[in-house]
Amino acid sequence: MGDKEQLITVDGLSKKFCKDLKMSLWYGVKDLLLSVTGNKVKRGLRPKEFWAVKDISFTLKRGECLGLIGHNGAGKSTLLKILNGLINPDEGKVVIKGRVGALIELGAGFNPILTGRENIYNNGAVLGFTKKEIDAKLEEIIDFSEIREFIDMPVQNYSSGMKVRLGFAVAAQMEPDVLIIDEVLAVGDLGFVLKCFKTIDNILPKTAIVFVSHNMPMVSRICNQVILMDKGKSIFQGDNVAKAIDKYYNHFMTEESNIVYDQGSIKLEKVEIKGSMRRENDLDQFNWGDDFEIFFKWRILKEMDKPEFSVIIFDIEQRPVALLDWKNELIFNSKINETFSFKIIHEKLQLSKGIYSINVLVSTGITRSPLLRMNNIISFQMLHPDEIWPPFLLKTKYKIIK
């Protein structure tokens, strides 16, 4: 057999967004008028705009699986939405041959007021299947989804796990030429996820798959190509999946504090992990069961109501594993340009072995209006002889009962 058929061609794809809604609407009106008059021009960024995706190119053949990896805000989901035709690019082009199945967001593509069964027919019709073809596959889809007793219930009453089951069952059993899978599989239980991967193994020779995940073991298991994205750009691309994953982890540890949202009221001047047994490779290391201390120093930039601080621990796969619970009624000097500090202590930390990072959210008022959100402000490592999957290894006692 000769070269496999090329199903996806992406050339110089770019998409920009505006951080301000009013400006975004105004730019949209101007661009619309320009396109009507035939004066659509290639232009750089205007005030408050940023590139969500910038100059991405790749090709994908039948039988190939492309892993899209990168931390939150890297542009992966925007790229998927362009591939699926949900949004149009500002520059570049996408050519996709054949039927496209997409699992992009929970329940995307489902009509909430229709039943599961009706949605199967809807999705099949969108993919280009006749009613007869869907009839032939209906029982397989319902069996695979494991939600037969709920199949005639409106989808709006489904749990997120049920939506994933039905969405994957439709996408996989219809055997599209191109299958696009976002992080939705993270919602399913382990047994169902393993079944999904077995199905992916079966359909991969006949399809081209674009797979987005923060779970690197999953990426290394099914992907034979990879693009590592950061701030909309490709910083590594190729078939060396192991090298890309190493770069992903390294980027996770060395990335400077990533400001996701900043209202300009408060600034993090210093963050420091204390109480660690030692530092190695720029990481504070803790033995399982050690006390964990983290020190913060803040500067007030504008007058505001008393801020609340949420400190969240993420694992190396960028999954939130714990929120540090502490009394948040801080007495601080709210004068502009002055600093205040505090330290949080968690005794006998029982996170399982691995590398973790701290995210912080500062909010205010009854509605918890955000003032500042920062990802990966500092990382640390837990040491333990046992390698386990769950995020916690909890100390317990046992008693033999005769």
Automatic annotation (TrEMBL):
One of its GO terms (molecular function) is ATP hydrolysis activity. InterPro entries: AAA+_ATPase, ABC_transporter-like_ATP-bd, ABC_transporter-like_CS, ABC_transpr_TagH-like, Bact_Polysacc_Export_ATP-bd, P-loop_NTPase. Residues 36-256 form the ABC transporter domain. Keywords: ATP-binding, Nucleotide-binding, Transport. Pfam families: ABC_tran. One of its GO terms (cellular component) is membrane. SUPFAM superfamilies: P-loop containing nucleoside triphosphate hydrolases (SSF52540). Belongs to the ABC transporter superfamily. This is Lipopolysaccharide transport system ATP-binding protein. It comes from Constantimarinum furrinae. The lineage of its organism: Bacteria, Pseudomonadati, Bacteroidota, Flavobacteriia, Flavobacteriales.
